[in-house]
Amino acid sequence: MILFGESLNVISKVIGKAYRERDPKPIQAEALEQKEKGMDYIDINLGPAKKDGHELMPWVCQVVQEVVPEIPLLLDTSNIAAIEEGLKVLKPASKPHIVNSIMARPERYTVMLPMAAKYEADIVALMWGPDGLPRDENERAALCVELLYAANEAGIPNEKIWVDGIVTPVNIQQIQCVSLLNFQMMLEDI
What we know:
Layout lengths: L3 E6 L3 H9 L2 H13 L4 E7 L5 H15 L5 E5 L2 H10 L8 E6 L2 H13 L3 E5 L10 H17 L7 E4 L9 H13 L4
Parallel strand pairs: 1-2, 2-3, 3-4, 4-5, 5-6
């Protein structure tokens, strides 16, 4: 099992405040706690980070890598410029860092895939297309083929792609859970 630590998230009161105030102590304490709990990767989630993400992401990456340099990071924000600025400052870790995530929307993946390839990062391929959440496994498969093809064309091999089939909470649309499971069974053939 591969463990992803997701506690460095802007929605956390403590971490969100540390991000805003550029206070490294709570961020580093959380990163060390995630290491202690055995996390294989640490996700840095800035949310949209529209205003200052391009400055915040590299700062957080450096703060985290000061205390856990061996743990690869997932750069998680919808701000593409922030992701690139983070990638620029990352030092090598035990495994490649990950761009989390690249939607199956051409206006995003045509920019983000070459960027991920340039910095030799793995990617999370998110099955969220131009129309939003796919209705079923066939729509997920179509989005997956499109995104994997584009990633391969950008120089990213399948071994560096983590596919996120995406699903709504099970208590809202149970059929989406079934659709996701069916899609996952199709993945090896895609």
